[in-house]
Description:
With 77 residues, the chain is mainly β.
Amino acid sequence: MPDRRIEVKSYSGYRAGEVPRSFIFRGEKIEITEIIAQWIEEGIRDRTRKRFFKVKGSDGSTYDIYSDEKTEEWFVL
């Protein structure tokens, strides 16, 4: 299944990089209650960087979401 584009509301603090706070998935707004893990992956060929987050949503589910730094879009796995 391909990654699905999502709309994310995020916070960018005093340090570089955005931290997601909520997102719209399947027409439902999900608040992020906990960031469980985060990491960065960089493509070997195109050097594209993706910032990944494993998050717990207000619906009780766990999601893996990421931002593509080149396109500035967010996706859910």
